[in-house]
Amino acid sequence: xxxxxxxxxxxxxxxxxxxxQRKYILHTIEAVFKKYGFMPLETPAMEQLNTLxxxxxxxxxxxxxxxxxxxxxxxxxxAHQAQAMGHEELDKTILPSxxxxxxxxxxxxxxxxxAEKGLRYDLTVPFARYVTMNRNSITFPFKRYQMQPxxxxxxxxxxxxxxxxxCDADIIGSESILNEAELIKMYDEVFDKLxxxxxxxxxxxxxxxxxxTYIQAEEHFIAITVAIDKLDKIGQQGVSDILAQTGLSSxxxxxxxxxxxxxxxxxxxxxxxxxxxxxEEGKLGILELKKLQEYIQLLSPINTIEYNFTLARGLSYYTxxxxxxxxxxxxxxxxxxxxxRYDNLTGIFGMxxxxxxxxxxxxxxxxxVLEEQKLFPVNLRTNDTKILFCYFDEATQLKAISLCxxxxxxxxxxxxxxxxxKKIGKQLDYANKLEIxxxxxxxxxxxxxxxxxxxxxFSGEQYPMDITSMINLLQ
Length: 475
Known about the structure:
Number of helices: 20
Shape: elongated
Oligomer: single chain
């Protein structure tokens, strides 16, 4: 009995045209990365769980895809044990084959768990791990770009997938605010090249830290940022409800909402300074925003720049400037890019005191917006073949193969129709369906002379030429 094929939820296949469109986005982003001096890097799809865990907050840890170690270890667990395992228990469970021989927990720490590896959740933490492991061979400040898939066990919906691509650029080993400004300008330039207008939102996590101090709720800082990060999805009332569940008073919640509304002021940075400028973290955050604003103005951005205090970024490793990009066209309101400053991410891996800052482009969401708004170039094709050689019999097929090889040696994408049993009409039908621009039909006349009949399949014109003229035409 045949099995009906299907895909894991939250993943997709990409046909030839979609792949070409995605490559168009990737090439546009990569060209800007290189223009600003960034170098390419790739890291493995899987990382050790202790590399990934604890870097994304509690919610992020729950979305990590964990990889079972080789071997059928679950068959040694009772059914009720396996079913009861949550995300925390799974990666802390000692392999059952060791359970009967180990009496002390300390002895178990060196033994393998059921799950020791996980699929990467983002590209930033693996980058920090790479920097730490290669510190002696890196020239700082180190500017790298990385474009690879990541995985999150999120609830799939439009614009949110379980497997998706990120395109990151990071600078590590420099505290200069100029880095933030140039990364923001890179956002501005990429989306201008893609003809996609955007709003680039900027905030600083130091202001959020100062806000927690201002309301005397420093211990709730992470909970406050996580709640604010959900504002676009659940509104102010939803944020208020979450904060109340955290244990904040109505007065504290009202102050938080008042701070968020400062984004609507004529000069948001000045308004934030009036409220939080007397707190040390607030003072530092304001100074950083002012310097960033000065640099950005010198770089003459094309898109809208917005200083928005509702921006929180849910990832827990951000410590300074944070940025998020939203499409300013159509109905797509989700983030299509984001990033920020992280001051000590490498410290977790034993390399303290190294500051970094980075941005990320969400390839899949950018694709969705460009597709929805029909912003892809019309000349993108499913293949690069410029000419198809057609023929009538075995002798003319051999001539076609020889000519095709000559064109390929000149760097021209060319094909020979493979099936000798198909008539010329079928061969040309193949070329038309794939939008191949030219066809060269090899008959008895062409077999015995240097003159070839080349047909423009778009205009219908047909003209004789020799191989040199054909090469010049196609180049």
